[in-house]
Amino acid sequence: MGAxxxxxxxxPFFASLSPARDTIAAGAPIDVDVSTIKPxxxxxxxxxxxxxxxxxxxxxxxxxxxxxxxxxxxxxxxSQQPQQPSYAANWHRxxxxxxxxxxxxxxxxxxxxxxxxxxxxxxxxxxxxxxxxPCHGSKYDLAGRVFNGVPAPLNLPVPPYNYIKDNLMRVGExxxxxxxxxxxxxQI
Amino acid sequence: xxxxxxxxxxxxxxxxxxxVFTLMEHELNEYPTPKNLNYWWNFGSLAGIMLVIMxxxxxxxxxxxxxxxxxxxxSVERIMREVNYGWLMxxxxxxxxxxxFIVTYIHIFRGLYYGSYKTPRELLWxxxxxxxxxxxxxxxxGYVLPWGQMSYWGATVITNLFSAVPVxxxxxxxxxxxxxxxxxxxxxxxxxxxxxxxxxxxxVVMLHLAALHQxxxxxxLGIDRKGPQDSIPFHPYYTIKDLFGLGVFLLFYAAFVxxxxxxxxxxxxxxxxxxxxxxxxxxxxxxxxxxYAILRSVPNKLLGVVMMFGSIFxxxxxxxxxxxxxxxxxxxxxxxWFFFVLIVDCVALGIVGAHRPEGIWVVxxxxxxxxYYFHFLLMMPFVGWFExxxxxxxSISSAVLKGGGRLAGAGxxxxxx
Lengths: 188, 417
Hints:
The complex is a heterodimer.
Chain A: H1 2-16, H2 21-25, E1 30-33, E2 42-47, E3 50-56, H3 59-66, H4 68-71, E4 99-103, E5 114-116, E6 130-132, E7 139-141, E8 161-165, E9 168-171
Antiparallel strand pairs in A: 1-9, 2-3, 3-4, 5-6, 6-7, 8-9
Chain B: H1 9-17, H2 20-29, E1 32-34, H3 43-62, H4 72-81, H5 86-114, H6 122-144, H7 149-160, H8 169-177, H9 184-215, E2 231-233, H10 234-259, H11 289-297, H12 301-313, H13 318-321, H14 333-353, H15 360-386, H16 396-400
Antiparallel strand pairs in B: 1-2
């Protein structure tokens, strides 16, 4: 009885450290007009304090994602780890193939990877294009899938999102009928 | 109890109601201290003085600091440029953290060499490890307060360590942050805790001292005091010796404060925190580098976190991992060398921690991490069993005074042990 009383009395103090109501409210979904993003272009928006990458992939880039020379080097090519909602657990890791939406936070230790879309270059002749994290050298492909042999353990996370109109994306809200919480992502 | 303090009427009146003078007399004047303590025994009192300096400067800094994410960085710059002597207080505090760790680490290695953790001083040692953990938490949260790039990203990386906990990891991290990223609520609570924890440390230091005074200081020979001929009163003998040591220490400390105030810090922390841009490399302050090296040497994330924290928690078990009954390494021919290898190992870990985990640094880091655990978990129990210690002197006096351990031996030629 005393233990129940003690825990009940301490609970408010414990709970007060969890995100406050306005902090949660500030994490409400945001709308993004994706019609202005040209093929090959990426924009970064901020949601819940995280950078959200929205990349418009070209047909060539999409074709590369399915080729074995890319997928053979990946740690989790089929998105089996819970790093995305079910509707993004496909080869392009998105609702529409051309629009990639990622939480731009490296799964190693939380740095921000940068887009290195062009193949080759500084990252080696066999670099197929993707994301590179400058902190500890983690590499991801153009679907945010992590390559083998880098410190990051998991693919870049995909946040919940849907299209409320053809070119109007809402980040932070699932398509109707799907319940996916961001806390289900194994690691941001 | 002692006669002199009871002379003054007022003192006698107070002491009868609140025996502070009796206590001081008992713990300073009468407190018997081994007469052979060397300067390695100076670092405990230096750590205590550093704690006082940190609290004192910290309180004044808090009067000009603003724990709000849009104002924190500027308020620190205001302390540096506008507040009278603000620069001095900040540099004393900032470098004070480094020097607090320097004297504490030396204090710990002194205990390791002379076996100060052995019976009957196990709890004294364990309270010391608690103080070390509290110091680390305080230092980490203090480093976040200026809200520079390294503050922000250091906080991100370190709090993210808890995401390695299975199942509830992400929930713990969100709870620690009070938000979805390191943000204003995080800064607020870190400031509150950074102000609180030093006073908790003061409390544990009191317990540390109470445990110390129960059996008195260990000494370089590691043998118990046999009688009054082996000890001298703490005051004035060791107060004056410690004060001389303090003077020498302050010369080094002041040199850094006045001539190289930013040498031990990271220049990236003079860039305001930017949550959308990570600095090229995230490195902790120097005193955390060995632990950071252990973290990065382990390829598995959860295991890395466990081994990093384990490297400190293992010290709690030290009194039982060391099976030798001889305290001082002076008389332990094999352990002594392992002790020096451990120092080299810890320095190597520190150097590895300052480099990117690539190439040779990964190899060195893994070997050094393995050695660290080998030293405590395997070497200590086994060497204690098979090592044949050199014969111990019969008493502290007999080692100092030629030809016997009695006061009658006074006047004989002095000799170093």
